[in-house]
Structures
1.
Amino acid sequence: MEKELKIRLAQEKDIEEMIALISLVFSLEKDFAADVEKQRSGLALLLNAAERACLAVAEIDGAVIAMCSAQLLVSTAEGGWKAIIEDVAVAETYRGRGIGRRLLAYVEEWAKKRDVKRLDLLADLDNKNGLAFYSRLRWEKTNLVGLQKKI
């Protein structure tokens, strides 16, 4: 019998499981490295910013097996809100079951309720599986290049 998948907003009790999921994401990205204390701090900030951030998890039998976050920003190009999607992660043993798709749909519904005009996300150029996944969900490449500067 297939166990029931539940998509919901994250809670403080989920932080340790989300840290483990984020480490999966960072293992694929050359620009970032897992740092438990930084991830714990970032997740706490997201949980405390519920008016402008969505931190969603997927769970089966009480275990968090996937996560995704979104944060609101103003888009002058759109003349309204946009949401930045980050930390899309599904535990390896649960991949290929539509969980990532359902998680992103949940976050998209959260965004629509806030009159978000556009969703943006960054993906590592070498993450072929991730890029193929986003392509199947009709995410489109842009001419924009992600840049960063640490201060």
2.
Amino acid sequence: MTVSAPVAAPASPVPTMLKATKTLGEFRRDPLSLFTRIAALPQGMARTRLLGKELIFITHPDHVHHVVRNNYQNYDKNAPMYKNARPFLGNGLTVAVGGEEWLHRRRLIQPAFHKNNVHVVSDVAVRCLADVLAERERLAASGEPFDVSAEMTRLTMRITSQTFFGVDLLRDSTDMARRLDEITAFATRYLSRPFPPLWVPTPAIRRFHADIDYVNEFVADVVRTRHADPAEHSDLLNLLVGAVDDESGQGLSRQQLRDELIGFFFAGHETLAHSMSWCWYLVARDPRVDGELAAELDRVLGGRTPALEDVPNLTYTRMIIDEAMRLYPALWVNMRRALGEDVIGGHRIPAGAIVSWSPYAGNRFPEVWDDADRFRPERFSPEQSAKRSRHAATPFGEGPRACIGSGFATVEATLILATLAHRHRLQLVTDKPAEPAVGFTIYPKDGVWATLSRRDG
């Protein structure tokens, strides 16, 4: 294994050593504060030992870039967070260890997410957003408070389920929707404290296994049905079913399709819902940004509903989304296992070490971002972006394991914000700052409660 050169000169002989039991407790109670504290240490690095394993914490974007891009071949996902997530997400691209089998599957699936297919998502999003607009008209007329976070969760579930399963779960399969919600809630609790093991038959774990069995059978039935009659559909499931390797002529097995569909569903539903919740919260707290957004939407759309062809022209809308994802990145923690020795920031990383980082802390690194905790979309203007490294903030990851659906997610997020913000203004019901909580993603702990008023009212 070739070891890349040090990313930066060492500031100390070794990263700061943290006490294992205290660090583990803090990781469970308040991991965002833990990573924020580590970011303030020399080079933003620390280490500890857990169960005989070296655990290295990094926070500087350059160090993360080294792991996921410059020397990515030395790192895989045979790490605790992915081992704990596989019972929920299967063994799809998102959580698979890596290696040749993973690479082969990535290349097989990649064409389905080509930019030429983004209309598959945008068409569904536009239809679903029409229903949300109608409901928002009612809420604006009544002045009734509502939870924007719950609204975004329902919306992204509808869009994602139609895109990947060809079914609107909230309308056509409410039992499946309920079980997916139960799995998400259980996973949020379990991943923060993965005990007892999932083979222990507690009532909660038995319910979880029953839900997983139901979801597996639902997805398997969808896949069987689609294999039998693929011609009449134009969704991403059809593209995945039809994906074939040019050399072998083989496609994805039914188990592989199941794993990918579950992984894509959670990535496209849970993560985007919470990203959009933070987006609405931040815009509602900043009248200046809300005004700039409204002005762009009036200028580009002229009163009509946005469509896919408008997305490239909604530059300020996209800047808002990028800045919201910088402050509250959906994936708040990441891990890799070092296959061989490496050097990061001048420090030796032993083979077998687990390297962990939090985009939440890295995206606020003071050497990279001035006034880092402030919401300022102009940071992502072309002029400002050109002044800093491209890997300073990477909401969808970078390197070979970057999110395969990032382009689709960006289009969907832009259409959601533009469609709904063009018609209504959001007012938060409290001045109390939203508290971030962690599960699969970073989400507003108590939701985002607001009222609506019409822009032209």
3.
Amino acid sequence: MATVSFHLKDPKSAKPTAVFIWFNPTNGQPRIRLYTGEKILPAHWTGADVQRANEKARGLDEETRKTNARLNKSLDRMSARLLAFWGDMRAEGKLPSAEQLRAVIEPQAEAPAPELPRPLPDFVAWLVRLERENAANTIKGRRSTYRHLVRFTQSSGHELDYADFTRAWRDRFAGWLAAGAERNEQMGDASVNKQLNNLKAFLADAALRGRTPKIDVKGWNWKFAEPEVLALTEDELARVEALDGLPGYLENARGLWLLMAYTGLRYSDAAKLRPVHDKGEVLQLVPKKTTDRAATVYVRRAARALLERVWSGALHETSNQKINAYIKVVCARAGLDALTEKITYYDQTSRVVKETFRKWELVSCHTARRTFITRSFAKLIPLELIMQAAGHANAKTTLRYNQTSVSRQVEVSRRAWDEE
């Protein structure tokens, strides 16, 4: 049977010296020297038959005793591994080499524990992927959901894990949003529902990528009332069309806004129009927000004149924020002063807050798209054609714009009764 003995490289050294092993196969093979990687002061070593670090000698302080005890345990483990490996190899009829024996006593690095998937870092990675194919405003909304998640997690004092996404967690998070715990201002029902929808989209993506098992989000929606769509009437649109003598920056905003009102394009798409999209009677492009569905938009004569100005550079891209600010000034100059009620629903529609504005104060780029769709309904254009122009995959989304207003009722009724 093989034997293992421990020795010091320099037993007379005044400094710590290396501890090595004599491995003796006792089968006629020469013994093998194996260095352990450990060192010890010879004065702390017991040689002869014991061959161990001294743990109990007088004069040793407590720290040295602990260090020597750890060394002895390490040497015992090496001895056991060597003898077990030797026995296994001999049972297979093999003689291990010196290199194989050295590998047995080399320190065994523990494999790092696999990193558990975490929702917040995964959410950041999801945002990075979305940035490559989505409009800035879409990403802005998803980023706000991430910020809410971070702050809610901080307020709870518990690191967020995928296992936390239960119905009870959803109730706490949605209630925290609705109560305005983050901003000292209550969040409207529609906004709370939007945050939950963003979160559901992220969780679906995480499950698809194997970061988490599929999470049941059935019933996660927050009850809300659909806000009334803000669109311009025929008369209001005509007033914006008739404006002239505007400064260059306002005229640029007016032109781009009217192009959106004539085509139904989002600003992210209207600002990126190129001649390659112009097919004569129609524009054909893939909207940035819905990259899997192409939009085909009929080019009216009024839109054609604006497109020519875009191709020539007379109308040029500027930021969405600036257009939203400038178009309010344009609409104020056009006299869009009608008192308009903005209704916000809170506490799952149990509380209603009504605010009154001049209409021009509420106009934005999206008002142009809403104007296009509501006017298309009023002109009795079939739903499927409006969906095709808007790039909508779901009829429910398009039908949100089909709201009956007094002006629309009058307009359609006059035409129906031949009283225009």
4.
Amino acid sequence: MIRKIIVIFLVIVMLLSLGACGIRKKIDEKISEKITEGVVNKITGGEANIDIDNGEVTIKGDDGEEVTFGSNEWPKGKAVDLLPEPKEGKIISVMNSDNVCIVILEEVKEKVYKEYIEELKDKGFEKDVYEYADELGMSYFGSLDENTHVQALYTIEDEMLNISIEINE
């Protein structure tokens, strides 16, 4: 499921770049929606409804599942409600669904990353913990329960933080 979502995300980003410029932006968005729906339907073998609004893409599947890409604000609802919001950093990408959320931030200081990991632990993500650090970056993996897992990856040089949560049902 995660791989499908990532493939769909990459296809959408590629297709949106084709229709994001120019004076006919609304027309281009509608064309991009239809093209993207066709590609996503081929990938998933189902019927998807694509809505593009101000750079944010929402895909609604025929099973009722909804995935949103492209926001630059902390998402609300769904899996992300289990995560604390980082105190600093600029959100550059979001992918949010009922069971998976990925948020990428830049301009995050190492101290903020370390404080965020402590907040994750305070929220209960302390089972099956794996932590790693070297001169390039740091990572944290922890579980809330057997179905809910979080991962935070931090790159020191770029000051980027990638936060992901997955809920397996």
